[in-house]
Amino acid sequence: MSEGSQPPVTVFHMLEKHLGERISVILDPSYGFEGKLTAVTRDPPGIWLSDAKATVLRSTIAQPIPQVVSREERSEIFINLNSVQRIEILHK
């Protein structure tokens, strides 16, 4: 590595910047979780959510962007990053 170049930014660095924020984690097209990002782990690769809610997503021909149709309360949950399709930061 030459002088002045920085190490590559990884998904772990990007997630650590958002600690304490609410995020949505989509595991498959119809299921995911929302919650407050409390920790990021590298081995195993994953994230911890507190105040988590399991979400069910649905899309239709008329509304192709998936919408949350139900939420179920959870407390804390660990999500392995190997099973994640998408992560979204939820803004207020």
Short description:
Helix content is 7%, strand content 52%. It has one helix and six strands, in the order H-E-E-E-E-E-E. The protein has one helix at 11-16, and strands at 22-28, 31-42, 45-58, 67-73, 77-80, 86-89.
Tell me what the structure shows:
This protein starts with 10 loop residues before the first helix and ends with a strand. The model has no long low-confidence stretch (mean pLDDT 90). Strands 1, 2, 3, 4, 5 and 6 form a 6-stranded antiparallel sheet that branches. The protein contains 1 helix and 6 strands; from the N terminus they run αββββββ. It has one helix at 11-16; strands at 22-28, 31-42, 45-58, 67-73, 77-80, 86-89. The chain has 92 residues and is mainly beta.
Short key terms for the protein model shown above:
92 residues; mainly beta; six-stranded antiparallel beta sheet; 1 helix; 52% strand
What is the helical fraction, as a range of percent?
under 10%
Q: Stretches where pLDDT falls below 50 for ≥5 residues?
A: none
Oligomer: single chain
Order of helices and strands: HEEEEEE
Shape descriptor: globular
Count the helices. How many?
A: 1
Computed structural class: mainly beta
Biggest sheet details? 6 strands, antiparallel
Distance between the termini: 40 Å
What fraction of residues sit in β-strands?
A: over 45%
Number of separate strands: 6
What is the typical, i.e. mean, pLDDT? 90
* Structural Rg: 15 Å
